[in-house]
Structure formats: structure tokens, C-alpha cells
Amino acid sequence: MVQPPKRSKNTKQWLSSRTKIALSCLLLPAIIKVLNDKFGRNAGESNGLGALLLLQEYASSALTTSHEKSPSDAKEPIKIAHVTSIIICKNEARVRGMMDALAVLRHSIHENSVHAHPNSKYSYQMYAILHEDNCNTPQILTLLKQLGYIALIKPTPVNVSAVRTDWYSTHVEGENCCGSAEFIKLYAYTLMNHPIYVHWDLDTAVLQPLDDLYDAILFDKDSPQGQAARSRIRVQRPHVQKIPDRIDAFLTRDVTSATPWEKVQAVQGGFIVARPSLEHFEQYLDMIRHTEYFRGRGGTSGWGGLGYGGFQGAMAYQGVLAYFYDVLYKGHHVELDVCRYNQVVADVIWRGPDGSIHMHQCRDYPHDGNYTRNTPENGECEDCRILPVEETITAHYTACKKPWECQVPTPFTPRNKDHAYRFAELTNVTTCGKLFNKWFTYRLQLEQRIADKMGTSFNAPDGTFQTDFFRGYCKGRGQYVPMQSLQGDLSQVYGF
After folding, report:
1. d(CA 270, CA 123)
2. 72 pLDDT higher than 90
3. Are 375 and 267 in contact (CB under 8 A)?
4. Handedness of CA 473, 479, 483, 484 (dihedral sign)
5. Residue 42 contacts by C-beta under 8 Å, 6 or more apart in sequence?
6. How far apart are CA 223 and CA 97, in angstroms?
7. Dihedrals φ, ψ of 128, to 5°?
8. What does the pLDDT read at residue 246?
9. Using CA atoms, how far apart are residues 343 and 267, in angstroms rounded to an integer?
10. What is the rounded average pLDDT of the residues 102-128?
11. Mean pLDDT score of the chain, rounded to an integer?
């Protein structure tokens, strides 16, 4: 069992910049020796390079650290690292849509930060982790700079050909969108010049400040600020889940892909709030390399044969996060209410066709073993599809489809008729439409500000397709009107 990191007497102090630089210089020879001993003299050709990259990141963070203070004595707002990962960039249409997604994501974060919202005290810095093999192009780097993102160009941190399980190494590349390349998201843990990072998928938007999550991590549990923040956070299964004394991560589960009879659930990979930790980063890599992975689904599948297999993303990021926080670093995370945080507007109730005895039960496993009581009528879960948009804190456009696809998520009839009801009720068009409106309102605000600050013309959107949803930015199904290229950069709009 991995032990929690040791805490100093005062957990709210960061090492000084000079100390970091000195430590980095002193540690470099030792780390090189460890790498050679552990990985061989050619360590730099494979995953041993990761630790050297971490040391470089640690040293450079000393030069860019903008705060060495606790939340209570900060003279300037603490900057939260907001991170997204860009893994595949070969499709021209994908790159065009990526600009709008990056711009709107930043704008939604800005509008819910100290710079624009009266109920927030935290600032932010945007980062984009780029896969070095797919996305390291002048076009994308220029775009990121214009939008105010710091680009971090990274390799896949694990050589999957050298992992313990042969079956895993030959199958992982077919998992989700990107296979092992998705593990570049783990580099967010190395952003040691920030006390907290938030990793987002690009198809997300912030609708309310996240200060309660930040406060709950940074303030002691017994402090007035810490107690107030914890009291306001909506957790999944509040009558079961106990908030730990030390919180190292907030996450949501992929409940919409779960079944009522399986205890293990994936982490929904579109949103995580966590403390950066070089130690945790290395533990992830060590786990992927050396933990046996069993094929199949069920209680003896997946990582360590403990049930972390078979679900969507099990071999990649979603399964690795779940195994880490459930098994390796248990008791230091909080599972948030999936209807309010990382809201995907998808059904969390079991509709079949398998497991008919569980029909209309909550997809969340009943931790007390009482399946009969595990229903929305008994308050064991909530129908996320009809949650008022005003209660949504962050939105994730998955079941609703991405805003720039200009698609209304209407029900469809699958080939397997047994699945017809499940797909017909998967999401809610009205709720999705209201969330689309939020995204396009952010875009409209941003374009108006760009025109005002940069002295350019603003052409009001004139599309006629579902204007209540898409606010004139869609001329028809699939006919999205992209943003115009920036003539300057967003520092002219936001001031940084």
C-alpha cells in the first residue's frame, strides 16, 4: 500500500524558489544514477526519461512560481492551474474546432474567477499538454499562445511494450480515442508551481465558481474556511461518503456506464481537481508498468484483478485514476455529485436489457447491499437529465454532443431492439439545449469583448438552426460557424 506523502508541520508553505533550484542541482546526479540502475544505461530512450523531465519541470517551476503563500495570507490571488490535453491534431476540421473550444473553455474559467465573479477569490493559468508525436506544430503552438495557454510538449510517459502484461500491451492502443497516448494527462500532476490543478476535457464549460473545492483542499478541515467550504460541497451518496481530513483530489465517477451489480466504477476522465505531486506521478507510471492487468469485465478483471477492467477507458486514463484513488491512495479523494459537477446529462438509472432484476434501479452500486432500496424514489440517486441548469456547476458535453457539432441529441433506434428504450431515454433534449445556450453565450460574450478591446468589427451571428440552443452560430445540422482568426491575443482582452 502506498503511504500518503509526509506533511510538514505547516502544510501551507511552499519551498522557496532558490531552495528548489538548489535541490534540483543536487539531486540531478543521484537521479541519473537511479535511472541507470533501474532502467539500464539506455534509460533515456524509454520511460526513465520521465523522471528527468520531472526534475526539469521542478527546477523550472522555481523560476515561475507566482505564489508562496497560504490562502489566508495571500496578497495576490492564488493561481489555479487549468489544464487540458491535446492528443490528436491531424484532422484539419478538428484543429479548427479546437480553437473555439480552447477559447470558450478559458472564457468560462475567467468568468468564474476572481477577475470577473464576485464570489471567487482565485486566479488561474491555462495550460495545454500536447502529445509530441501528434500536436507539436507551429500552427497549434501559435494558436495556444494567442489564447493564453502555456504549451507543455510531452511524450507518452510509459513505454507500453515493456509493461508486465503482454495482453495489455497489445490491446491498450485500441482503448478510447487514443490508447496509451492519453496518459499524457498525468503530466498535470507535475505542475508543482501551483497548489491545485484542474484537468478538463475540451468539451467542457464552467458555470459556477469552484472556490469551495479549492478551499476544501487548501484550508485545514477545522478552520472556519475549511468547514464552510466542506459544508457546501455536493458529494455523491452523501449518506455513505465521508469527506477525509486531507483532500488530495475531487473527481466524478462514470456512473452512466456503470451497472448496479458492479462495485467498481471508472473515474469520468473529463474533470479532476487535484494537488500536484511528483510522487503521485511516478506512482502512476510504476503502477502501469508493473501491475498485472486481467482481461474481461467483473470482479477479477482489470488492474490487479480487482474489477478495474472491461468498462470504458479501463485500460487507459479512466481505469488508472480509479485504481490509484481506490486502491493505491485510498481515503484521500472525494466523489462529487455527478449531476452538478461534470454534468453529462445522461441517464444514471438502469434500463436493461441485461440484469432485468435491477430494472429502474440506480446505476450506482448500493454500498449497503440493499438493491430494493437502490432507486431514485428512495433518494439513492437523482435523474441528472432533468436537473435545473441553474444548479449545474460544470458541464461536459458528451451525451448532449459537442456544441460545435450543431447536433440536437434526438433519440434514435439501435439495431438491437433490446436497447431501444435505453437509447431513447439516454439524455434530455431540453436540458442539453439550455446547456448549449450557456456555451454559445460564453462564445458571444468573448467575441464581443474581442471586438471591443481590439477595435475589430463584430458581426452578429445569423444562423437560423435551433437558435434557442445555438444562438445563431449554426446554419443547419452540422453546419457550425467557427470563430474568426485572432488578430492579436487574448491578453488584450483579459489583461494577462
Report:
1. 21
2. no
3. no
4. negative
5. none
6. 44
7. -130, 120
8. 97
9. 13
10. 98
11. 86
